[in-house]
Every structure is written in C-alpha cells, then in structure tokens.
Amino acid sequence: MASRIGEEFVPGIFVWTGFAYKGEAGPWPRKGLEISFFDYVGNKTPRGHQFESFWLNQPKVYLATIEAEKSEYQYDSEQGWLFTERTNPNKRMQWLRKWEWFNVRETWNYPANQDVIVHVYSNTDESELFLNGQSLGKQRITDDNDRILFWQLPFTAGELKVVGYNNGVKQAEYSLNTHSEVAAIKLSTNKKQLSADNYDVAHVNVKLVDKNGFTVNAQAHKVNFALSGNGQMLGVDNGWEMNVENAIKENVQSYLGKAMAIIQATDEPGNITLTVSLDNGLSSSITLISKAVTSKEGGK
C-alpha cells in the first residue's frame, strides 16, 4: 500500500512474519506457521532470502529448486511462465496460500533427468545460471513473476550455481551441490561462553555434510544429543513446521540436513560438552565454557 504526503508517495509493506511460530496450526501435523524469514530454529528461509535481496545494499543472489510437476509456475512456449495456485487438501484453508511461500528447497539432489524448476532471487542487474560450469543463460529481474527468475532443466548431478553481475562485472554467487552420504557432523554455536546464572543459553546448530563438505539435505537422519558438565538441555528441533516430535528429549530427525539444541547454563561454572551422534556411529562434540558471574554482572 502507499499513502500520499503532499506530492510524494511513501511505499510500505506488511510482512507476516519475521520468525516462524507455533499456533494457528493445522491441518495436522502442521504445528504452526512457517510463513516467515526464519524457520523455528533460525535458519533463513527462501522467503527470507527473497526479501533480503530487496533490502540489502550489497549484491545478492540465491537459488532454490522444486520438481517441475509440483511447481506453481509452468512454462508455456507462447505465453511464457504461468502461475497456477496450488490447492490445499483442506478446501476451507485455501485462503492460507495467500500467506505461504513457494514449496522450493535448497537442494540439488533429484532422480536423473527429473525436470526441475529453479527459482533465483537477485538484486543484481543480471543473473547467469551455470550447471557444472556450463552457462544456461542470463536473465534480468523485472516486476513480472514476483521478481523471480526461472529456469527449467533436467537434473544432472554436480554443481548448480547462479552468478550476479552489475554492469557486466561479477558481484555475487550462490551454489547448490549434489551430495553423497553423510561423512561428518559440523557443529557451530552463537556463543561459546555462558554466564553461570541459571539463565544464559547457547544455540548449537548441527549440519550433516558429505565427504566434500556439502550439506546432506535430501535424506533425514536421527540426530542424538548427549550433554555433560554444568549445563542442561532445554530442547531440540529441526526447524520444520511438520515436526511434531517432543522438543524436550535427546534426539530429533534432521531436516534439510540440519538440527539444533538449546543449552542452558546452571549456577555452577565449568565446561559444558555436547556430543552429537548419528545411529551410523558418526559423532562430533563441542565444548562451551560457563563462567562465574561477577558481582557487577549479577546486578543485571
């Protein structure tokens, strides 16, 4: 919408929501609404990447994919890209599609020769798609088709990459790679030092990768958590809106190759070690440090 001030127009937009939330759920097993920039554990969603491309000053490109037969966009040789809204299994909830995003995913793992549609979100002058180093052509963003660039191609294993250009000069790139089996568990955290105050928390993110370091996002794996030291585990999740597992336990199925645990300090300083393992024997550990709260800190 826009409001008029004198002779000028001020554009505005209403966004729902920044972060996925529980509630307004359904139909089962949908536990809430992931119509957001970030999913339940803080992973940026395709919608988040699209809006980021609107707002960032620096160049950005991003891509995601969907099977052609499941896509709401289909290519017609005479009319170009046409949109047909997907239907909700519950007809009474068809209105919800107005709020949802496209069912695209960050993956380049499909059956051989499967027709795939690629979405590219970009804020550069031009974007060029490459499959295993071979250019599939350049396109320019317009106001048509929700400011999304589309390509359709049969799946071939390897690297799918988009490169963004301004004035013919490369500015940004983003790629998806075909992965193999899980070979390692990568752990990261938003903080490695906690205050021993029975309150402070850290988010430990889990990423399953293959031998080349590519995220294994096409298969789900049971992720097990074991905590030792002066901390407690508040909960686990995988960010998926269809995940209705109990969050207060010591394992969760990965989703798109990811999972997360929330660790809270006790009032005793010391090390907190989280060990993450899969049923195939792979494991990895991360150690957080819980430090005593000083008198000055204690007054917060």
TrEMBL record:
Segments forming domain DUF4982: 114-170
Q: Which residues form a coiled coil?
A: none
Similarity comment: Belongs to the glycosyl hydrolase 2 family.
Keyword flag Hydrolase: yes
User: What species is this protein from?
Assistant: Paraglaciecola aquimarina
Q: What is this protein called?
A: DUF4982 domain-containing protein
Q: Which controlled-vocabulary keywords does the entry list?
A: Glycosidase, Hydrolase
Q: Does the keyword Ribosomal protein apply?
A: no
- Signal peptide extent: none
Residue ranges occupied by any Glycoside hydrolase family domain in the UniProt entry: 185-284
Lineage at the top is:
Bacteria, Pseudomonadati, Pseudomonadota, Gammaproteobacteria, Alteromonadales
- Which InterPro entries does its entry note? DUF4982, GH2_Domain-Containing, Glyco_hydro2_dom5, Ig-like_fold
